[in-house]
């Protein structure tokens, strides 16, 4: 048996006798050919509304003649001439390979095939092939969240169809249970910060588990004991704590350890009082003279060290204002996480409340608000001293201390939860900060039995009963199933946290959108040069045109003015184009696309789109580039490139739709 290929073949035959001592071989060459050979000329896929010049390539080795064609289309395809599904035509075929194309219109997606039969004298050939007609549903979302203890009304416009997802809850705290357990899954390390973080996570989990029906995947009591043993073993004779065995006391890590011990003690964990008193003496001595450490001579370092000592002493119940004016004078040089902690501390110290409110107001100007989150920007020169998670956690604690509105606090919690990476908050210290902040909020939360409902006009959409433990209820309804200009939420007394997520389809001829993220698509020649086409927010004035065989560099530019997490980029291809996957060994190395921004990862090339992903982006401009080749003549719809947050799809951007012609 031979493969079904028309080419030159060489066959080799080998014969071996039973005794293995006698053998022989022979070979021969022959050519497999046909008088008439036809192959389909099709794009890899098509979209509704496209006009494709599809057909066949014909090769006649006998020298040409009158070629009789019969074609039949099924499914989404029709010939543009008369909207017919069949064609009988005669064409003159010359020598060599000749392309015969026929304009076809693509309709609604359904199983589609093309059948062509050809006859040239006595020679015949035929094929039937499928065509994938793809209409990837592009959806966008808007969200509205809030809280009420009585009644609230949210205006809605559901005229675009789609789905409305409604969430009702009496608390948002339990969302930290899983990431906290994931952070505790790794083996403990013999380091002070590791043990201190584990102590905070374990103590918070043990205290909140009964109230919020948490079932952690670790033993909080055993984790507390192990962490305490490690922390106390690292305490030095001066009362401070060493970062690890064999080193001397470190003031910042000692302050963090003392705060962890105080946090655990306040939640019922037995802590050695003698060790606490020694640590307190060390903190007071360091507060009075931070320059005892030779590496801390500058005013900024002394102020930051003194504030760390003040926070740790305050955690032990010894609130002071010693050197607080000096600390406040250097506050503009602190990272925003430390500034948020300072604002909260100032609010609690007599005579400094006004300064605390002023600092809190300045910080709130750096908060980026969406429909359900309020994210503190930590993009500053000292960001390495306090991560984004630590800054967000400190902001949540500040809002709780200020008795901010439930909506503001819910937004801060939503942002904190959304900052989790694939396995939690990125680090054990970050997880501890997040859990501590949520525990502080939980201490002020009142969970009482109540009944909640949401109605659209006179139609009851959902009703839920809540008790004294945390619970939530989510439902999805088709937007076309009811008509209303607003939704009414009601609570019989407890605090109802609600969220509306409206997801609707996007017209394929829609202009661009800027909803927190801006996306621009540029098309340039390989290696740079003048812009061939650009799709921004406004639709382009005329279709972009390219000759078949042209290779272009397509760049997708994503602009963000605030930190974002888990951003996905998706750039659809027009049907007449094929993306070039440069990762394949068969790809040419003679030409290459412009480089991507290094923050973008996991780029994937598909038949109809190119995608990329970023775990975290700071404010800035980021670019993804790839090469694409114009292949099949026709007129094609080109949906806009888009970028969106996987956890918050209502924050997105999209470039405008376009028409592209391949000649």
Average pLDDT metric: 86
Shape: elongated
The major sheet is characterized as:
7 strands, mixed
Strand percentage: 25-35%
- Uncertain runs are 380-386
Structural class: alpha+beta
Q: What's the β-strand tally? A: 34
User: What is the share of helical residues?
Assistant: 10-25%
Q: What Rg is obtained from the alpha carbons, in whole angstroms?
A: 34 Å
Distance between the termini: 42 Å
* Total helical segments: 12
Explain what this protein looks like in three dimensions.
A hairpin with a 7-residue loop joins strand 22 (about 515-525) and strand 23 (about 535). With about 675 residues, this protein is an alpha+beta fold. Helices cover about 25% and strands about 35% of the residues. It has twelve helices and 34 strands. It starts with 7 loop residues before the first strand and ends with a strand. Helix 2 packs parallel to helix 4. The strands form eight sheets. Strands 3, 4, 6, 8, 24, 31 and 34 form a seven-stranded mixed β-sheet that branches.
Describe the structure using short key phrases:
663 residues, alpha+beta, 25% helix, 35% strand
Short description:
The chain is of the alpha+beta class and 663 residues long. Helix content is 25%, strand content 35%. It is elongated, with a radius of gyration of 34 Å.
Write the layout of secondary structure elements.
Elements (H helix, E strand, L loop, with lengths): L7 E9 L6 E9 L4 E6 L9 E10 L4 E10 L2 E3 L6 E8 L3 E10 L5 E9 L2 E9 L7 E10 L2 E5 L7 E7 L7 H7 L8 H21 L7 H14 L17 H15 L7 H16 L10 H17 L8 H6 L6 H13 L4 H12 L2 E3 L4 E3 L11 H14 L4 H13 L9 H17 L5 E7 L2 E8 L5 E7 L7 E6 L4 E10 L7 E3 L1 E9 L7 E3 L8 E3 L4 E10 L3 E9 L4 E4 L20 E5 L3 E9 L2 E11 L3 E5 L3 E4 L6 E3 L3 E5 L1
Parallel strand pairs: 24-34
Antiparallel strand pairs: 1-2, 3-4, 4-8, 4-31, 5-7, 5-9, 6-8, 9-10, 11-20, 12-19, 13-18, 13-20, 14-15, 16-17, 16-19, 21-33, 22-23, 22-25, 25-30, 26-29, 26-32, 27-30, 28-29, 31-34, 32-33
């Amino acid at each position: 048996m031979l493969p079904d290929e028309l080419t030159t073949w060489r066959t080799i035959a080998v014969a071996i006798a039973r005794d293995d001592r006698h053998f022989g071989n022979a070979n021969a060459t022959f050519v497999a050919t046909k008088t008439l050979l036809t192959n389909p000329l099709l794009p890899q896929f098509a979209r509704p509304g496209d006009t494709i010049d599809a057909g066949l390539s014909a090769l006649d080795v006998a020298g040409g003649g009158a070629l009789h064609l019969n074609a039949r289309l099924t499914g989404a395809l029709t010939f543009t001439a008369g909207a017919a599904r069949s064609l009988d035509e005669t064409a003159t075929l010359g020598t060599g390979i000749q392309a015969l194309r026929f304009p076809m219109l693509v309709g609604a997606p359904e199983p589609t095939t093309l059948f062509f039969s050809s006859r040239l004298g006595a020679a015949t050939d035929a094929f039937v092939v499928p065509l994938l007609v793809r209409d990837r549903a592009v959806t966008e979302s808007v969200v509205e969240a809030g809280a009420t203890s009585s009644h609230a009304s949210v205006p809605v416009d559901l005229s675009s169809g789609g789905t409305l997802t409604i969430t009702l809850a009496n608390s948002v705290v339990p969302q930290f249970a899983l990431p906290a357990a994931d952070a505790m899954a790794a083996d403990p390390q013999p380091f002070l910060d590791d043990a201190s973080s584990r102590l905070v996570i374990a103590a918070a989990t043990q205290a909140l588990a009964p109230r919020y029906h948490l079932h952690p995947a670790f033993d909080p009591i055993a984790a507390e004991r192990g962490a305490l043993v490690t922390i106390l073993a690292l305490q030095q004779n001066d009362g401070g704590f060493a970062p690890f065995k064999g080193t001397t006391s470190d003031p910042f890590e000692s302050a963090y350890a003392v705060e962890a011990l105080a946090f655990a003690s306040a939640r019922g964990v037995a802590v050695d009082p003698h060790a606490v008193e020694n640590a307190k003496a060390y903190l007071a001595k360091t507060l009075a003279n931070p320059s005892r450490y030779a590496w801390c001579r500058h005013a900024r370092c002394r102020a930051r060290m003194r504030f760390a000592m003040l926070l740790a002493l305050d955690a032990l119940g010894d609130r002071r204002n010693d050197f607080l004016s000096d600390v406040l004078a250097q506050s503009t040089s602190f990272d925003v996480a430390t500034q948020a902690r300072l604002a909260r501390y100032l609010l609690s110290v007599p005579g400094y409340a006004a300064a605390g409110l002023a600092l809190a107001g300045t910080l709130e100007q750096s908060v980026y608000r969406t429909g359900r989150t309020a994210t503190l920007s930590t993009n500053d020169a000292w960001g390495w001293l306090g991560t984004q998670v630590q800054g967000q956690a400190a902001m949540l604690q500040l809002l709780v201390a200020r008795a901010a509105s439930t909506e503001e606090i819910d937004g801060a919690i939503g942002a904190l939860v959304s900052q989790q990476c694939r396995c939690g908050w990125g680090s054990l210290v970050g997880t501890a900060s997040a859990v501590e902040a949520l525990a502080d909020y939980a201490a002020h939360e009142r969970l009482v039995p109540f009944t909640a409902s949401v109605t659209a006009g006179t139609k009851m959409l959902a009703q839920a009963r809540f008790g004294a433990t945390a619970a939530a209820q989510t439902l999805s309804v088709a937007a076309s199933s009811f008509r209303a200009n607003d939704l009414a939420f009601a609570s019989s007394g407890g605090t109802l946290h609600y969220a509306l997520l409206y997801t609707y389809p996007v017209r394929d001829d829609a202009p661009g959108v800027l909803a927190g993220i801006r996306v621009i698509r540029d098309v340039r020649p390989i290696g740079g040069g003048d812009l061939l086409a650009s799709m921004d927010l406004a639709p382009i004035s005329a279709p972009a045109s390219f000759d078949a065989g042209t290779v272009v560099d397509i760049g997708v530019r994503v602009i963000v003015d605030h930190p974002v997490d888990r951003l996905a980029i998706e750039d659809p291809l027009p049907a007449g184009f094929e993306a070039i996957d440069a990762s394949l060994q068969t790809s040419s190395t003679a030409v290459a696309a412009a480089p991507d921004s290094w923050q973008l990862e996991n780029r994937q090339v598909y038949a109809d789109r190119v995608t990329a992903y970023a775990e975290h982006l700071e404010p800035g401009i980021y670019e993804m580039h790839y090469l694409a080749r114009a292949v099949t003549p026709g007129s094609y719809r080109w949906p806009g490139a888009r970028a969106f947050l996987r956890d918050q799809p209502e924050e997105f951007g999209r470039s405008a739709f376009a028409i592209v012609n391949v000649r």
